[in-house]
Every structure is written in C-alpha cells, then in structure tokens.
Write a structure and sequence with these properties.
Chain lengths: ~80, ~190
C-alpha cells in the first residue's frame, strides 16, 4: 500500500530538559554528518523551531573551535 | 540589565601564574568597561576542532558577566590585541542561563594544572595502551575461534550462531534516531 512512514518525534520537544547550547557540543555532534555538515531536520526528525536553534548553536560552536567546520573523512 | 557570556581560548603554553594574571586582567578590564563578572569557569586544556595560530590545543575560559552599558566592542578589541588569546566569542544570554560559581579561580587553575599533567602523561601512555587494547580485542576473537575447534567440529557449528543471534537485535535498539532514516529506503522497494 502507500507510504507507511513512522512519524519522527523531535527529541527536543519530547524531552524539554534537553538544552540546545553551543557549549553542549557533544550533543550537537549527533546533528552533524561525518564531514561536519548540519543534517537537515527532516532526516533527524528535529522540528523547525528546534532545528533553527541547533543550527545557531552549531555555528557558534564552530566559531569557537568546539566543532569543526569541515572534516576530511579520508584521514 | 543585560547578561553576556564570553568564551575565550587562551594559549595552552601559559604557566599557571601567567594564566591567573591574564584572567585577573580580563576581570579588571571588564569592570573598567562597566560590567560585573558573575562566573568564571576554567574548562582547561582542550583539543581544538581546527588549528588556530598553528596551535592544536587551547585553554578554554568561560566568563559570564552582566552590565547595563558594557562597551562590548571595546572589550572585544582588548581581547583581540592580547597575543595570549587565540580566539574569543561574546554572546548575549538570558538570565536563566547563568551558572553558579562553584569553585574559586585559584582552585580551578590548580585543578586544570593537575589535569594537564595527567593528560600529558596519559597521552604518552595512550599511544602505548591503544595497541595492547586492540591486540586484546583481537585476542578475544581469536580465542573464541581457537576454543571452538578444540571440543569438536560438530559443536562449534552449533555454538557460533547462538552467539550471533542475540547480538543482532541489540544494535537497532541502541540508535533509534538513525534507525528511522535507514528504515525508509527499505520500505520503498517493498511497495
């Protein structure tokens, strides 16, 4: 039959205690690819509101060298 | 009243005394600019995600302060001109995000100095330790392989699948986030 896709629940909506902050760079790593790119919300299931915050936090963490801008996967 | 937060990366080669002088200097500078320091957290020596001024490591310092009219641009230019500061970032924060000062600056500096000594010693150990770990992991697998043939050829074929079956369902449970993305391509061919 048609597409039976399991609807993903935003991890930040589900658990309100999770804080999106650039200092929590270990948590933010979940939302990056191996190369260091930000994974789009429709893949990770993060809602639009929290995806905007994740993006901002990742960009701040990159600025202060907590997360990489890019990473060479071949290394 | 506005609240700000500065993350500062200090040169890793600074000695404890000079590090303290630098931090105290930043505090005084901030007071002169009309801010009041709320918390200072020394994160210690951390590996940078990318090289800054050809440095692999940096000492991270988190500074939370408040002020009505903090001239942040002046404060930032002072940080910019300091040769011992590799990078910095000042961000506006909410009142709820302010952390409580748990320990003094002196104890933090002493703690990080101790950690550094440990990490430096462990770094040299890690290189030597890593190899034995791998070899033990490899040895475990080889032990299983070698132990199986010993009892008999009939038994080993029966034992091996039993060990593999419980291991397989564990992996999807562990990473539920990535599981969903991997499931979708599987469903399409079924339709």
């Amino acid at each position: 039959m048609g597409f039976i896709t399991q609807r993903k629940i935003c991890p930040f909506c589900e658990n309100r205690e999770m804080v999106i902050d650039y200092k929590e760079y270990r948590l933010l790593r979940k939302f990056l690819t191996e190369q260091g790119k930000i994974i789009p919300g429709f893949v990770t299931g993060v809602c639009a509101k929290h995806q905007r915050r994740v993006t901002r936090a990742v960009k701040r963490a990159r600025n202060i060298a907590l997360l990489p801008y890019t990473r060479d996967v071949r290394e | 009243m506005r609240y700000y937060e500065s993350m500062i990366i200090i040169h890793p080669a600074l000695e404890t005394n000079r590090l303290k002088d630098l931090i105290v200097g930043i505090h005084e500078n901030l007071k002169r600019k009309g801010g009041t320091v709320i918390t200072t957290e020394l994160w210690g020596r951390k590996r940078l995600a990318y090289l800054i001024d050809k440095q692999k490591y940096g000492t991270y310092l988190l500074l939370q302060f408040s002020g009505e009219k903090v001239r942040s641009t002046d404060f930032n230019t002072d940080l910019e001109h300091d040769a011992d500061i590799l990078a910095y970032m000042t961000v506006k924060i909410e009142k709820e995000q302010i952390r409580e000062q748990e320990t003094d600056l002196d104890t933090q500096i002493a703690g990080t100095a101790r950690e550094e000594a440990q990490t430096q010693s462990s770094e040299s150990d890690e290189k030597t330790e890593e190899k034995p770990e791998k070899s033990t992991a490899a040895a475990e697998t080889t032990e299983e392989d070698t132990s199986d043939p010993a009892p008999g050829t009939g038994e080993e074929t029966a034992e091996v699948p039993q060990e593999e079956i419980p291991a397989a369902p564990e992996t999807p449970e562990a990473d539920s986030g990535s599981e969903d993305s991997s499931e979708t391509p599987d469903e399409k061919p079924e339709d």
